[in-house]
Amino acid sequence: MKLVPVYRPRETLIHGLHPLAALALYASLVAVVLVLQNPLYLAVVGLGVLSLVLLAEVKEECRPFLRLGMFMALLVTLLNPLVNRQGGHILVYGPGLPVLGRLDITLEALAYGMVSGFRLFLVIAVFGLAGTTVNPDDLLDILSSLSLRSSLSAALAVRLYPSLVVEAGEMLEVQLARGERLRGGSRRERIKARFPFWMSLFRGSLDRAAAIAEAMSARGFGSGKVTRRRRPFRGRDYLVVPLSLGTLAAAVLSSMGGGYRYFPTLDNPLAGLEIRTAAVLAGFFSALVIIGRCWKRWPWWRSRI
């Protein structure tokens, strides 16, 4: 499972956002997921996040993150009833242990574990969406105004890591084709067999670093201030940022009015559902989808925003 985000430029609204606007969107989504407790709200957010994945056309790139999210959600769902003893409706009477006590499984703990797992799935999905739709070069360019050396190091690492992984895979294939025993045997034998591989990889990294340093020096890096054209805020960013912050504010206000309770007994999700909050959530994602579809269909609309 490859969990290294791969950014590929595409003509979608999500890819066309300014990095700060995209970060505001994703940070608001994560905060909304963490703030809201009612499972019906989270279901709306889940549908919205999946619609953004389809809108950004990054279904294949996000697939590893979605699989990881489902695995983590299943793990949380299974483990939470075993460690959480709260709840008034016992589903299974477990055995009694000397230190831990009785391992009873309650309906409330199971429901809380399912919702917590789903919340974790949404957070991982949002991070996957961010990693595949935000241009790392634009993001690091913004960070360079705060710390040039740190952003340069991060940019080099982002650029060199994929090529390093590809080079390592090719070197391993060559060694296996030559009949090297890279697997099996004792730990000492495996380390001895892989030592030439690590040395070759290290020497290749040093050569690549020297070549990059020479190229940067030839282009005048470090000789003084240079004029750089930063990506400006456009109409699409002025639409998305207020929508994101407004949705986050609605979620916070809804949670301050008394959230959904799982213990000691489950609240009725419909009884605690506020039509205003649900409409804000549905309207937020619907607005993004409509703007994105118009962006994709009409070039003149794209040029306006």
Overall residue-averaged pLDDT value? 85
How many strands?
A: 4
> What structural class do the secondary elements suggest?
mainly alpha
Distance between the termini: 37 Å
Helix coverage percent of residues?
Answer: 55-70%
User: Major sheet, described briefly?
Assistant: 2 strands, antiparallel
Low-confidence stretches: none
SSE sequence, one letter per element: HHHEEEEHHHHHHH
Total helical segments = 10
Strands of the widest sheet, in order across it, are: 1-4
- How much of the polypeptide forms β-strand, as a percent range? under 5%
Q: What is the molecular shape?
A: flat
The gyration radius over C-alpha positions equals 25 Å
Can you give a write-up of this model?
The protein has helices at 19-35, 39-55, 59-83, 107-133, 136-143, 148-177, 187-218, 235-256, 275-297, 299-304; strands spanning 90-92, 96-97, 101-102, 105-106. The chain has 305 residues and is mostly helical. Strands 1-4 form a two-stranded antiparallel ribbon. Strands 2-3 form a two-stranded antiparallel ribbon. Helix 2 (39-55) runs parallel beside helix 9 (275-297) and helix 5 (136-143) packs antiparallel against helix 6 (148-177).
Topology, element by element:
Layout (H helix, E strand, L loop, with lengths): L18 H17 L3 H17 L3 H25 L6 E3 L3 E2 L3 E2 L2 E2 H27 L2 H8 L4 H30 L9 H32 L16 H22 L18 H23 L1 H6 L1
Main features:
305 residues; mainly alpha; two-stranded antiparallel sheet; 10 helices; 68% helix; 3% strand
TL;DR of this structure?
The chain is mainly alpha-helical. The chain is built from ten helices and four strands, in the order H-H-H-E-E-E-E-H-H-H-H-H-H-H.
